[in-house]
Design brief:
The structure holds two protein chains of two kinds. By secondary structure, chain A is an alpha/beta fold. Chain A has helices at 18-31, 66-74, 79-83, 96-102, 127-139, 163-171, 195-218, 222-241; strands at 5-11, 41-48, 52-63, 85-92, 115-120, 144-148, 179-180. In chain A, strand 2 and strand 3 (52-63) form a beta hairpin. In chain A, helix 1 (18-31) crosses helix 6 and helix 7 (195-218) packs antiparallel against helix 8. The longest helix of chain A is centred in the last third of the chain and has 24 residues, at 195-218. Chain A is elongated and about 75 Å long. The model of chain A is unreliable at 184-188 (pLDDT under 50). Chain B has a single domain (4-155), classed as Beta-Lactamase (2-Layer Sandwich), CATH 3.30.450.60. Helix content of chain B is 49%, strand content 21%. Chain B has a five-stranded antiparallel β-sheet, with helices on both faces. In chain B, helix 2 (80-98) crosses helix 5 (132-155). Classes of the chains: A alpha/beta, B alpha+beta. At the A-B interface, helix 5, helix 6, helix 7 and helix 8 of A face helix 3 and helix 5 of B. Chain B: It comes from Maudiozyma barnettii.
Amino acid sequence: MGRDKILIAYNTDNEFTHYDTIKKIFGKSLDAVEHTPNDSIVKGLRWRTKYYSTDFDLYIDQYTSLDQWLEDLRDPECDVLREALAGLIIIDDIDKTQVSLLSTKGSPIVHQDSFLVWCDTTGELSDDETENMNVEIAAVGGSLEIIRLISGEKNEFNDTVGVERVKEIIDTYPWTNMVKQLLINTQNAPNKPSDRDNLDSIVQKLTDARSHYQSLDKDDDETDSNSFANEIAKEVSERLSF
Amino acid sequence: MSHIKYLLLVSRQGKARLMQWYTPFTPKQKTKIINDLTPLILARKPKMCNILEYSDHKVVYRRYASLYFICGITNDQDNELLTLEIIHRFVETMDTYFGNVCELDIIFHFDKAYDILNELIMCDGSMAESSKKEILNNVHAMDAIVSNDHLDRVLS
């Protein structure tokens, strides 16, 4: 079963506007589908990176007591839901007791391959304190990551923080239904041989292709020669686009 | 002279993205090293020392954004600071090749990351080439050959 759903849970008592955060994370994906801020399920979203795109659904739930909500999620009735989750994002003030429960190794809240993120809405913890908490979680082998929402894009170590870090986690999730993008521009393509070499090589190939095409033409095999010409045109256009 | 035992690339979430072994280890030993070192290094605070002792050797690591570059080195033969420089050179070269390299580049072009690493460090763990320009020339030459092969396949 493919894990292609992201569950977002937020505290209704929190003054933080959950939809703003969701919009910051999934902005472009959400803009492409019809929805309202009160929707609890948004289907058919598309996550795009420079390497792939993938379809996913967003499930949005609210709670007044995180304890109770997590208890419900652990219930065997929610096994199917938990198995379908690519990740769980909690938007709330940081609660150290809950954090220690969630960060326990082998916590059955989400599948071991899925991501588990706590977006801290308070401005009380500094970047350093958040980092220290993440280090403590890593020390016990937990998969939870605490992300301070009130942060810039990078910290003093040039690490991605805040909403950008949430996006990075979603980017690197191994989506089973991802569709790889064709690299069509120089920014995306890592291969940058010199233009001169590239052009020389293409000219040489075109000369060879012309001779080959003429030999095909002589045999009056029009379908083959046309198909060959099309393949060459496609290949050359791809080469020139790098 | 540097004789690195292994180089591991681990994400902040504890996922191994690259691993290169320069000393013979059994699969069981490799698993143990990865399982031991990953939580050990992820649990270290940013301002802690980048060199630690593990088993019978030393481990040098350096964090770049969400990735930890971890090197096992021989106690008597290797210089810890030189190893840090090698890691930095590897990152710099990838950065130039990919253009501001990120974890996603390494996931989707792990073959290129290995190519760069193989140009930089020989199979015995010693440094093969220190020039970033030379490494990039070689990797680009490999890319050109692959690209030409593809066109040749169409032509044939």
